[in-house]
Structures are given as C-alpha cells and as structure tokens.
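Lecture 7 notes. Example A: sequence first, then its structure tokens.
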Amino acid sequence: MRAHHLAEWRLDDMEEKDLVIIGGGPAGLTAGIYGRRAELDLVVLDSGVGGGQIANAGLVENYPGFPEGIRGMELAEAFRQHALNTGVALNVLEPVQTVSKEGNVFIVATSKERYVAPAVIVATGLVHRKLGVPGEEELSGRGVSYCATCDGAFFKGRRVAVVGGGTGAAMAALNLSDLAKEIYVVTKRDSLKVAERIMETRLEKAGNIEVVPHARVEAIKGDQKVEGIDMEVDGEKTHLAVDGVFVEVGKTPQTSFLESLPLELKKGYVVVDSAQMSSVPGLFSAGDVVYGSPKQVTVAVSQGTIAALSAYDYIKSRV
C-alpha cells in the first residue's frame, strides 16, 4: 500500500514503509498492533528497549483488567510481547535524529537507517527534566537518580531526598518508602500537589516520609558519591545529609527532531485534531507528547489506537 514519489536513486539507500512509528511505549506499541492488524508494513523505532516509562512505575492500579494492580515493568513487557506477537517490527536502541518531508512522503533518519513512508506517528513521550544545579551531572549515577523504581534498591536503609512537588515526586517517595530509612520530599510549594487523593493518604501513613516545603535545592554535594544537598528553606541556607537524590521536577516532550517540519507545537507538545493528526498532513501523534494529554496510560492506548486507524485511512486515500 505504498504511494511514494521519490526518484528511484533516492530510494536505493532508504527502507520503504507504509508507516513509521516513533516511540515504543504504550501509545506507539498500540499503534503498531492496530497497524499490523490492518496489514501495514511498519516499523516502531525506540531510543530505549521498548515498553515506555510505564516500566518505571511501581504498582499500576488504574489500568482496567488488573483488579489487584500490575507492576509497571510487567505491563510494559506485556505491551512489548503483544506487539511482537502481532508481527510488529520493534527496533530498539534506535533514536530518531530527524524527520523531514519531501512531496508526499516523510524521511525518518536514525543513526542506523533512513526510512521513507507516507505516514508517521510520533509517540515519543516525555523525558525527565533536570534540576540544573551544581553536582547534578557530576554525581549522576553516583547517588543522583531519575527513577526510584529502577534504583531504589541501592538505598535500602539509607536517607534519601526526592526533589519535586507533584505526582511524580509523591510516587517516587511511596516507591522508596519500603526501602529507604528516611525520605525527605523537597518542594518549593506549600505541600505536594498529587493527582489522586489516595496518594495523600498513603503519604500520611508511610511513617518515614517528611515533606520539606518552601525549599529550593542549590547544589548536590559529595566526593565521588552523593553526601547531601545544599538548600534554601524559607529564605535560610541549610544542608541536608542524604545518600541519594531522586529528581522528579517534571518532564519535557521529545520533539526536537521535528524542528524541520512546519509543525504546530505548544510548549513543545504536538497539537492534534480529533483524528490525532497534526498540522502536517500525514503526521499523527499519540500519548504524553500530545498537547493537553492527561498523561495516563489508558489515554495513551486510546490515542495510539485512533492514530493508527487514522493513519491507515490517510494512507489508503493516497494509493
């Protein structure tokens, strides 16, 4: 089902596809499943190992079909396996560098290959925002972490700080509560702002979580490993001795590789219509990278479904 209109010599060094999906999280893998069921020749490109950031979640309790909840890693693997079983080509560790459009087709370039396709679905999600303070880069992997689920076990019985004031910080603190001895949630706000009331209840019951309000981290200190953080709390300088720092200050959309396209973005997020189509015909988007998305895995799955069905209709209309 191809309608490519590039000179033959240009196609020699490109891999032709009906659809290229960028991002292998819940949205991208769902799009891949629906695309394959429509018998599209497609590829899913992921900068990691596939599964998305849901793999970093502890217990996922709000995904339908799992009344007792399911571990994020297990859910991510289930998505991966379902996609592979459907015949989805999942290329891992292949980050996309650029996406351009020539005529009616897109050129998707990675460090390994160049793909040409009439339609693209962007489902790249978000990346962790950094604090940008002295010591953060130097001590990354030496006590500074952006994933409590991944690295929490290294801090069993120790004192740690979680920096952030939202749901991500609350989830990180709760994930660490069964491991760390003491957890200090450092936030600029009066209190944590969480998505669900049940999180507030669990934070209160944890017993080893203390919120430090009106606090701003100025530096992460340590020689070879994290030893503490310098802060300003209510206008006064202070030092908090900790063995680990988990940064949860928000996330930013991964859309820099789209800069060559005349694409409508808001705050870096892709603006789409009800069919998940962007302002560039043939370019669709789904999941957390979409402007206005509530950042829920159920929504990502829904948008991935819509994007794939819309992409199929778009491709078919051009044959």
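Example B, a different protein, same format:
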Amino acid sequence: MKSTRMSILIVLVLSTVLIVLVLLTITRPSLSNPDLIVKDPPELSLPEGAKVLFDKRGLHGVDRRDIYGIAYAPDGSRLAVAGDIGILIYDTCTGEELRRLKGHRAEVYSVAFSPDGSTLASGAEDDTVRLWDVVTGKHKRILKGHRTTVYGHSGAVYSVAFSPDGSTLASGSGDQTIRLWDVATGESKGVLTGHAAEVRNIAFSPDGNTLVSASSDFTMRLWDGITGEYLKNLTGHGQQHIRSLAFSPDGTTLACATQEGVKFWKVATGQPAGSLAKRDVESVAFSPNGTTLASGGDDDDPTIRLWDVATGIQKQILMGHTYFVNSVVFSPDGTTLASGSLDGTVILWTLHE
C-alpha cells in the first residue's frame, strides 16, 4: 500500500516537472522562434531628404527616451538635443554624436546656444541652470547648487534663452519666476515676478529689447529685456496653455502654440493678430527669413505643418513622428528643419521651396 502511494506521488512530481519544462520551452525566445526575439522598432517611413538624427523609440514604447528640447548652433554645424537622456550634441552634416554632456541629475527641458556658439545653456528638473563649453563639453558654471555656484531657482527650470548680444541669460522656472543672469560672472541680474504658476516658455526679441514669458497661469507677459521692468500682459488667448512661442525675425510679431492652434500677437500693441491651424499645436518656429512658420502637432496629429506667414496658407505637411512633436527649429540658413518628439526621435527635414 505504501509503495503504491509512493509510486503515485513520484508520477505526479515527474509530471509536474515535465509540464514546467514544456512551458519554458514554449515561451522562451530562441533562434528557432524569431517572433519571440526582442527586436528594434521598425524603420521610420520618411520622405526623401529627411533623416533620423536620434532614435530611442524602444520596442512598443518600452525604454523610449523623451525629447523635450532641441537647438541649432548659430553656424548650423551642431544640434543640441535635451531630454530624459540628458544632453547630446550632434554634427548635423554627418549625424555623428559629438558630445554627451553629463551633470544634470534629472530630465533636461531646454537648451540654447549662445550667439557666438561657444556656450550651451540648459535648464532641468533638478532646479539648475548650467552653462557648458561646447568644444570640451565641460561645465563653465552651474547657476544654483554647490559651494562654487550661484543660488537661483527653487523649482524645475523649463526654459532658457540668451539675449541677442550674449551678455544675459534668462531662465523660466516652476518657482513662478524668471531670472536674469550675467553670463560672464554667473551673478543674478534680477528676478522677475508676477506669474501665479510655473513659467514654461521665455524668449528674447531679436533686438533684445523685449522678453516674453508664458506661464501655466494662462498669461503671457512682456518685460523690458534690458532692465527687466514689466511692460504689459498679452490678452486674447483665453484659458489656454501656451506650449511654445517664437518671435518673428523682425520682432514685430509673436507666434504661440495653443490647444486651439497657432495664435499671433503684435508686440507693439499687445493685441491679437490672427491665427492658424485650428487644432492642438505643441511647438512653433519662424524660418530665418520670416516667410514660413513651422508648427508641431500633438499625439492625435503628430505632423509638422509649414505655413506661408503672409497668406496663412498651408504649404506642406511633414509626416514621420508618431507622438507629440514638442520642438521644431529651423537651421540658420533656413534649408533644414529639425524636430524633436516624445516618440524618442529627432528628425532633420530638407526643405524645398
């Protein structure tokens, strides 16, 4: 009787082991079962003249890297890419990664080259603004934090912008302020207050006389770009978040990306001056000659649209991204458009008139 029970127990144990081995064989990826092998994402389908500069989509979105900001160097030879991977600098001609700037301890939201191209500024979730030597990739200065640095923001830094003469850096933060910094010394030149929520976007006018800021409090403010004095609010956009903003090259017009399209304001009067693209827009940029505006769409329409500024007519649609296109920028010569997306890619588009 005991031997019979023991035999039954042995059979049950062996059966269980056999079932487990079979299941492991079925589910384990192998060369004989290629469908179960982890693959790279499929190649993007892009038009002629477009190329992927950076691709960290991951498989089915797993390990995807988010791109938050991109910036061209003044001579167009380099492109800085900012995101949760940090800061990368690429050669725009060869596509080669030149530098990986390490130092921020969290996502980097914004990057900007100085007018002479020697310095890169960055703002990040770690509450710091950092200045980098573009050639060596080393820190020049950290504007807040350690014993050798200048204390500044107490919230994430979402936007950075150099004045046209390169002497001043402005930064907008989650602490609801804009700070002006002396680039040469790293000293604070002033703190601009008045917004009631995080400051997401800032930009200097081409002549440097005006600074604009956009906040999650649904307001846009104009400031004197030299003294920091408050000038006026821009009204007419309602309760809409401003996702991106850009001055026209002549400084007379301001374009803003909102959930109801692209909206324009006349800088001199502060009054609305028309709109484009009656859909959610994440990013905007003017071409260097001011004749074309590029707009980047959201997850429902992850395209880039090119518009004739004078007529408001759509000139072209660039398709290739699969998620929010939250950064677009023209090359200094206007022949190329760079776009960064939350799909984990940066694409360079050759433009044809």
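Note on Example B: The chain has one domain: 50-350. Residues 50-350 form a domain with the Methylamine Dehydrogenase; Chain H fold (CATH 2.130.10.10).
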